[in-house]
Amino acid sequence: MKHFVLCLSLFGMLHSFGQELAILKYNGGGDWYSNPTALPNLIRFCNANIGTTLAEKPKTVTPSSSEIFQYPFLHMTGHGNVFFNEEDLQNLRTYLLSGGFLHIDDNYGMEKYLRRELKKLFPNKELVELGADHPVFNQKYTFTEGLPKIHEHDGKRPQALGIFEDGRLLLLYTLECDLGDGWEDPAVHNDPEAIRTKALQMGSNIIAYVFSS
User: Fold this and answer.
1) Which one of 73, 105, 117, 188 has the largest count of C-beta atoms within 10 Å of its C-beta?
2) What is the SS3 assignment for 33-45?
3) What tens digit of pLDDT does each residue of 60-90 get?
4) Within the chain, what is the greatest distance between any pair of CA atoms?
5) Cα(4)–Cα(14) distance, integer angstroms
6) CB within 8 A of 146, min separation 6: which ones?
C-alpha cells in the first residue's frame, strides 16, 4: 500500500512536469526496436503542434525496471513474440494501476502473442474497443471514424482496443493500423504526405489525451 501511494504521488508530479516518453524493451524475441525514427518524429510533431515540450530522444526501459515509473507514457511495438515474466507482470501492472499509460502499436504479427500476455497481465479484464466518440479521437485533431488506416495488410479494419480501470484508459492497443509506420521518416515507407500527417495527428491525440487525463 505504501508503494502504491508513493506511485500515485510520483505520477501526480509526472503528469504536471514529466516531459519524457519511453520505449518498452520486452522479452520473447520480438523486435521491440522496430520503427526507430517513429517516436522521435512524433515527439517533434507534438512539440511543434500541440504545445508539448517533450524531450526529443525517448528513453528505453524494461518492464521489470523501476525506471518505468519515471515516465507517464510507454510505447511498445514490434512484429513478433512478446513475453512477460512474473517480475515484468507485477511491475508493469503496478505502473499501470498507479497512473501510468502503455500504448501498444502492432506493427503486424504480434497480436496472438500480445493477447496471451495481456491476459496474464490483467486476468480479469478484457480489451474493449473504443468508439469514435472516445476523447482520444477528439483532441486537437478530430477523427470522426475513429482510428485511421495507415498501412494495409489483411484487409481488416483498424481497431483501437483499451483496458480500463475505474473508467480510466490505462492501456491502448492499436492494430490493423500501423500508426508507428506512419510516424517514421518519409523515406522509410514512402507514404503519401497526407497519410503520414494523419498518423502523426492521431499519435499526437494519444499524447494529448494521456497528458491531460
Assistant:
1) 105
2) CCCCCHHHHHHHH
3) 999 999 999 999 999 999 999 999 999 999 9
4) 51
5) 15
6) 130, 131, 132, 134, 137, 158, 160
DSSP annotation of 157: P
Closest listed residue to residue 107, CA positions, set 82, 139, 143, 132: 82
pLDDT in tens, 6-17: 344 444 434 434
Strand order in the sheet with 59-61: 59-61, 22-24, 73-78, 101-106, 168-175, 159-165, 128-129
| Cβ atoms 95, 68 nearer than 8 A | yes
For cell 512478446, the residue is 82
Predicted pLDDT of residue 62: 98
Contact (CB, 8 A) for 76 and 32: yes
The CATH-assigned architecture of domain 2-212 is 3-Layer(aba) Sandwich (3.40)
The CA angle 109-156-125, to the nearest 5 degrees, is: 65
